[in-house]
């Protein structure tokens, strides 16, 4: 008996998706609620920069403030009791720990809620299993 899950054939993700059932549903577009932005209320809801439960990415030119902005959101989430993951390809943990301390975050909160990953290899099945 083969216990392997059937893998989709190459190129199958390019097949048209039938939207009929989706159009009939009461689907509501998700709103970004993580990384709250002042004075950004829509329908009584304070909006943020990132979508909960989704993969959110920040990219841009060097020195543009990506790390500080990301840490601001990470700190917001940690102070709410949530865990946050930072996958860092450029810096080291000391920079981020120092910045979070400057923002007033205790070492206890950092140790409990901050998940730091600094990969130096490609994402593959072995990496996925470790993650």
Describe this structure in words.
With 131 residues, the chain is α+β, with helices and mostly antiparallel strands. The protein has two domains: 37 residues, no CATH class; 75 residues, no CATH class. The protein contains five helices and four strands; from the N terminus they run αββαβααβα. It has a two-stranded antiparallel ribbon. The chain has a two-stranded parallel ribbon with strand order 3-4.
List the strand order in the largest sheet. 1-2
Per DSSP, what share of the residues sits in E-state strands of 2 or more residues?
Answer: 5-15%
Indicate the low-confidence ranges by residue numbers.
none
Overall mean pLDDT stands at: 86
Query: What is the tally of helical segments?
Result: 5
Q: What structural category do the secondary elements indicate?
A: alpha+beta
Radius of gyration over C-alpha positions, nearest whole angstrom: 19 Å
The rough form would be described as extended
How many domains? The number is 2
Offer a few descriptive terms.
131 residues; alpha+beta; 2 domains; two-stranded antiparallel sheet; two-stranded parallel sheet; extended
């Amino acid at each position: 008996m083969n216990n392997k899950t059937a893998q989709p054939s190459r190129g199958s993700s390019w097949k048209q998706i039938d939207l009929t059932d989706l159009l009939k549903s009461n689907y509501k577009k998700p709103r970004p609620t993580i990384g709250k932005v002042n004075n950004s209320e829509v329908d009584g809801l304070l909006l943020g920069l990132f979508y909960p439960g989704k993969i959110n990415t920040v990219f841009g030119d060097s020195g543009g403030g990506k790390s500080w902005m990301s840490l601001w959101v990470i700190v917001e989430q940690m102070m709410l009791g949530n865990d946050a993951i930072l996958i860092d390809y450029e810096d080291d943990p000391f920079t981020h720990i120092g910045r979070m301390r400057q923002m007033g975050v205790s070492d206890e909160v950092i140790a409990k809620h901050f998940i730091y990953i600094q990969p130096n290899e490609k994402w593959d099945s072995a990496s996925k299993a470790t993650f």
